Amino acid sequence: MTIGIIGAMVEEITPLLERFGEHKTHSIGGNTYYEISRENHTIFIAYSKIGKVHAALSASVMILKFNCEKIIFSGVAGGLSADLKVGNLVLGSKLCQYDVDITAFGHALGFIPESKLYMESATELNDIAKEVAKARGIALKEGIIASGDSFIADSKKKQWIVEHFNAVAVEMEGAAVAVVCDSCGIPFCILRSISDSADGSADVSFDEFLESSAKRSADFVASMCERI
Ligand code: SAH
Question: Torsion over CA of 211, 212, 217 and 220, rounded to 10 degrees?
Fold first, then answer.
């Protein structure tokens, strides 16, 4: 089995590289991909850089170049739901792009013709995440994750995303990975640990908790790989 793990920032993949140890590197499209050989699996890890376009490029390379059969995104997110606090883990049941707007032509907000408003993540991977959470006694919230190319640090914008997309967390890459995987028929899972609450103090919270939250997500994803 070949598994791809994507993070958008160095802090999101460093704990994985430290945990998995020896790797080979590949340079493609301005990014480095790390190849790890394990007993049952080959794991590719990518630091995609921030945002939907970069995440889509990394997911495409993972699938089309390295033949990854499953893709997991590990990283941090802003919490939208009141019960998601810094450090909590959230699993994206569905992913959407809150910044897609062709409503001028009568389409629903977030919808692109011949695509989907909500991309569903893979039950088989989400079930593994739930098993890991149970085994470790960790609470794992499942819900819609909304992605867009902005860092949300404003209570009004946050409320707008909740009202229009019913999302529990916001970030900048998940839906891009979801679109690529869905288009290519590759099961995917988006796991995030909360770094901030997407409100007026999100930037300060993000800086303080990025490293610890990114590590929490990475450790969780590494445990998932042991069960795949
Ligand atoms: N501090 C970084 C920029 C971080 S952008 C720099 O200066 O380079 C935020 C990253 O964390 C993105 O990868 C996004 O997916 C995630 N994220 C965390 N909180 C977020 C929020 N409130 N809104 C949007 N993305 C968020």
Answer: 130
Residue 192: closest CA among 81, 101, 116: 81
pLDDT at 171 over 90: yes
Structural domain boundaries in the chain? 1-227
ipTM: 0.99
**Catalytic residue, candidates 12, 171, 173, 182:** 12
Q: Which residues is 144 bridged to in the sheet?
A: 94
DSSP state of 168: S
The architecture that CATH gives domain 1-227 is 3-Layer(aba) Sandwich (3.40)
* Dihedral angle of Cα 153, 159, 161, 164, to the nearest 10 degrees: -170
Is residue 196 annotated as part of the catalytic site, yes or no? Answer: yes
pTM given for the model: 0.98
Which atom in ligand 1 lies closest to the alpha carbon of residue 207?
1
Cβ–Cβ < 8 Å for 193, 214:
yes
